[in-house]
Amino acid sequence: MEIWRWAFVLMVISAFGYGIGAEQLPQPHQTERISGSAGDVLEDNPVGRLKVFVYELPSKYNKKILQKDSRCLTHMFAAEIYMHRFVLSSPVRTLNPEEADWFYTPVYTTCDLTPNGLPLPFKSPRMMRSAIQLISSNWPYWNRTEGADHFFVVPHDFGACFHYQEEKAIERGILPLLQRATLVQTFGQRNHVCLKEGSITIPPYAPPQKMQAHLISPETPRSIFVYFRGLFYDVGNDPEGGYYARGARAAVWENFKDNPLFDISTEHPTTYYEDMQRAVFCLCPLGWAPWSPRLVEAVIFGCIPVIIADDIVLPFADAIPWEEIGVFVAEEDVPHLDTILTSIPPEIILRKQRLLANPSMKQAMLFPHPAQPGDAFHQILNGLARKLPHGKDIYLKPGEKSLNWTAGPVGDLKPW
């Protein structure tokens, strides 16, 4: 009976034809403006509100690394590269460090890839330490605050903890020299050692042109109720099971692999992006880390994200009303996912789709090149601008030190 009821609801939802792409948005009456301050914040222009000085580092910290492996331009950690390029040509950049509000050190710490394209974080701590030693020796600005007016882009799985396995990341903790800096990172989880207070959580990189190439007609019916493609188990790294995704993905498969409302599989078809545009709900479960590009893809393609990651801190959460556009399901409630989703009234689903069709929502999740107003680059700058002015307490007294340069694993202290 439940399936037949939802077959009817799918027809009703599809009849409204809510669209998907930032370039092919439906007519204005099919979108809905975000209520309150969130919508205004998304459309803020950071120009004139802050000035950023970019340290000119030797190319071995960024450009030469990229020259060795161009795959770094397309993987989900590429925000560090595009943020560097953006700031270099942005009107917020200043060449006079004396008038800067923020100092930016462009280090490509994720551009060390395995043959399979996965980033190896093992050199990252030494690389970051080396860059900080360089700027602290050649400019006076780091030493004034020990990094409290500096920001770093650290898009690793667990940010500046620099490891892809949570247990190891927690054991390492955030690189000690970054304890006073503002971290711009994809990882976000409340009450976690790898997310320090004041960090700016950003979306992972998803290639805008690639997604644009797969847009289909906004009139296409959303005939799939729940959609997911990806791993349910990671046998290679978690042979006993239960550790990967804290068992949440395994629970999805075990409970719903035969449910006709769920289109779920490990296969990644060539129609993946098109299928998301035909779906009402897209599952966004945690994997090794709580975040993934699925969140970006779901928003861009107008598929309501079903977020399964306890305590996750979502991108630009002070500007994007995630509670209004998504559905949050506790990891322990995954076995009841069908009941939870089929219990959502159609009018609530339609409102979430209208909000997702808002161009400012989609733009905020993308790192386009060239940059566009309201995109993720601008949201990062807005986040930095909202932290201004800096308090006087960030400046150290003459001779005062708070960071321990010899703290951390012995391997991190070796020269890079």
From TrEMBL:
One of its GO terms (molecular function) is glucuronoxylan glucuronosyltransferase activity. Belongs to the glycosyltransferase 47 family. Residues 1-22 form the signal peptide. It is a single-pass type II membrane protein. Residues 49-344 form the Exostosin GT47 domain. Keywords: Glycosyltransferase, Golgi apparatus, Signal, Signal-anchor, Transferase, Transmembrane. Transmembrane segments: none annotated. It is found in: Golgi apparatus membrane. One of its GO terms (cellular component) is Golgi membrane. Pfam families: Exostosin_GT47. It comes from the Eukaryota. One of its GO terms (biological process) is glucuronoxylan biosynthetic process. The lineage of its organism: Eukaryota, Viridiplantae, Streptophyta, Embryophyta, Tracheophyta. This is Exostosin GT47 domain-containing protein.
